[in-house]
Specification:
Blueprint (H helix, E strand, L loop, with lengths): L1 H10 L5 H8 L4 H16 L4 H12 L14 H5 L15 H28 L2 H6 L7 H10 L3 H22 L4 H34 L2 H9 L8 H16 L3
Helix pairs in contact: 1-2, 2-8, 6-9
């Protein structure tokens, strides 16, 4: 959305990054196809690749099998500083399993809820409701979120709130402090890879801007390619670029 805002400013488009983001949702073909693929997978019950292999092993061995290099269900709670639950299919119904799900869902739900409420407050959602807006209207939310002027700061506060909830859930679940610190450390390390990818993607964009790549391509293609082919060409170039850089 920050990139949208920068491009809009350069092209003289008086729209916020959030506004252009909402308008572009119907063109997010990759995301839409992946959602459709998930529903197709649920309806057909078919698995692919390594997941299909794991499902076949589970069916043959009644759910009791081990994949090399991964901990078993009995080993995981011991590493996390929790009481080892009973082995086998009953694990899903144990108190420890339910505690793990709660420790994940509460912080995630708190982050999303804090973010939405923050955007609603910053975007004058209450005043728009008084003017006849509806919480069930897509247009209402588009206007409110687009009007939010401190979206990056709100996202930061929402992240801090979610992390705080995760810490409290760990304390309530009686996890040891060393275990909690180790979990935070792992999360921080895993966040470094997408963080590095974003920096590289922004660097690539800045390099293309400084080299006038857009103007160069425009000069080459002007008068040689029909405008009707332009959207398809842009999509294919974006596919190749995202595959080459490792980020969509």
């Amino acid at each position: 959305m920050g990139l949208f805002a920068d491009v809009g400013q350069k092209l003289g488009i008086e729209r916020s990054g959030y506004s252009m983001f909402f308008d572009a949702l119907s063109f997010r073909f990759y995301c839409l196809l992946m959602i459709a693929f998930i529903f197709l997978h649920i309806l057909t019950g078919r698995d692919f690749g390594p997941m299909a292999t794991a499902e076949q092993l589970a069916n043959k061995q009644d759910g009791k099998f081990e994949i090399p290099g991964t901990p078993t269900l009995a080993q995981v709670p011991a590493r996390a500083g929790m009481t080892t639950p009973a082995e086998g299919p009953r694990f899903a119904g144990t108190q420890a399993g339910a505690g793990w799900a709660t420790n994940a869902l509460i912080p995630l739900g708190g982050l999303i809820l804090f973010h939405i409420i923050g955007l609603w407050t910053d975007g004058d959602g209450l005043s728009r409701l008084r003017q006849g807006g509806s919480l069930l209207s897509w247009v209402y939310w588009r206007q409110v979120i687009s009007n939010a002027g401190h979206s990056h700061l709100i996202l930061f506060y929402a992240a801090v709130f979610g992390v705080t909830l995760a810490l409290l859930c760990g304390v309530v679940s009686k996890l040891r402090l060393a275990v909690i610190c180790r979990c935070f450390g792992r999360g921080f390390k895993r966040a470094m890879l997408p963080f590095a990818l974003l920096i590289l993607a922004w660097s690539l964009k800045n390099c293309c801007d400084n080299l006038k790549t857009g103007e160069f391509l425009t000069t080459i293609l002007a008068g040689r390619v029909s405008p009707n082919w332009f959207p398809a060409i842009v999509f294919l170039v974006a596919c190749v670029t995202s595959f080459a850089t490792g980020t969509s």
